[in-house]
Design a protein that fits this description.
The chain is α+β, with helices and mostly antiparallel strands. Helices cover 19% and strands 31% of the residues. The protein contains five helices and 13 strands. The strands form three sheets. The protein has a five-stranded antiparallel sheet with strand order 9-13-10-11-12, covered by helices on one side. Strands 1-8-4-5 form a four-stranded antiparallel sheet, with no helix packed on it. The two termini are 35 Å apart.
């Protein structure tokens, strides 16, 4: 179902968003990281909505989209929830039922600054880092791009992001953490790709499903 509304752009620091003016949980029946097709005026793109709590979300507007928008006060917006994003996982040979591999061990790759998300995906998928970079593109990876790539490889993950806010918590057997502005892989009691991390700098994590 498509939802139409009019909204302004919201700026927070260097980032730009659109606030969705209704409770997304109640309207769509969906929760967690919700993938959507978005059309602002005549500019179309895909993204995952950013949860702000209690069913309210923001639409993230990246720089490429922002450059295409005319400068105006209010924009006509169309939002359509979809099952998966198609930018990376389109035409994937893998699926949840037929993933690239069973995650029963991790071959460690040292985290490379600026490519931490790529390194985490490479460790989970077992694919050479160069191939992951080719698939994801260069530059710092967002949560959205990491999850799209996990979809491509058929690697199952929890639909809900857990926010720790620096508090101590029991981590699942396998998860990706957003720690100190970088991504880190945790698997069966150990952090991979780094020598040490400060748990108080962990913002959130997503569980990776393993048997």
């Amino acid at each position: 179902m498509k939802y139409k509304f009019n909204e302004t752009l919201l700026t927070e620091g260097t980032k730009t968003f659109v606030r969705i003016p209704f409770n997304v949980w109640e309207e769509t029946g969906k929760k967690g990281n919700i993938p959507c097709r978005i059309c602002i005026e005549d500019v179309s793109f895909e993204c995952k909505l950013i949860p702000k709590g209690n069913g309210y979300y923001y639409i993230p507007i990246n720089k490429n989209v922002l450059k295409q928008l005319n400068n105006q006060n209010v924009y006509e917006i169309e939002m359509e929830p979809v099952d998966k994003l198609s930018r990376i996982n389109n035409n994937s040979p893998y699926s949840i039922d037929h993933p690239i591999r069973k995650i029963d061990s991790i071959k460690e790759i040292s985290i490379i600054p600026g490519l931490c998300g790529h390194c985490v995906v490479a460790m989970l998928s077992g694919v050479p880092l160069e191939e992951v970079i080719h698939l994801m593109g260069k530059g710092h990876a967002s949560w959205s791009k990491i999850l799209e790539t996990l979809d491509y490889f058929g690697i199952e993950y929890s639909p809900k992001t857990i926010y720790t806010k620096g508090e101590d918590c029991a981590l699942p057997p396998c998860c990706i953490l957003n720690n100190d502005n970088g991504f880190v892989l945790f698997y069966k009691g150990a952090y991979y790709g780094v020598t040490d991390i400060d748990p108080k700098k962990t913002v959130n994590y997503i569980e990776i499903k393993v048997n």
